[in-house]
Specification:
This protein is mostly helical and about 120 residues long. The protein has one domain. Helices cover about 70% and strands about 5% of the residues. The protein contains 4 helices and 2 strands. A two-stranded antiparallel sheet has the order 1-2.
């Protein structure tokens, strides 16, 4: 029973800290609050929707060459980019309190759908 309560209390404590930290960060005049909230949103969105890279890469690779290449190489690229976008999103979600530039371009998988995803600072 004690382990179960500990499991329940950790997410609750994290949620309370997050709920308390966001308004405090937003009150800052230096833009820190905006940067951290944006990073948290990017992380949440990319963690939840990284799977969009699968159909995106199949379609884009098919359009760039042919359907056979799109189904094979596009699928492989899609799996790799899905893992990459989801991992970057998870890291951004956990480290949202340390603002930094966007690492995945385009920022969200659904933006500029016909553009290949790139990783790194630009």
């Amino acid at each position: 029973m004690l382990n179960r309560m500990r499991f329940i209390s950790l997410p609750a404590i994290f949620a309370m800290l997050l709920i308390g930290a966001v308004p405090i960060a937003m009150a800052a005049d230096d833009g820190y609050g905006t940067q951290t909230v944006n990073k948290f949103g990017r992380g949440l969105a990319n963690t939840a929707t990284g799977w969009i890279e699968l159909p995106k890469n199949v379609v884009n690779t098919s359009n760039q060459s042919n359907v056979g290449v799109g189904i094979t190489w596009g699928l492989v690229k899609g799996v790799l980019y899905t893992v990459g976008r989801t991992a970057v999103g998870a890291v951004e979600l956990v480290t949202f309190f340390v603002p930094n530039d966007e690492f995945v371009h385009p920022t969200y998988a659904w933006k500029d759908f016909d553009q290949d995803t790139t990783f790194g600072s630009q």
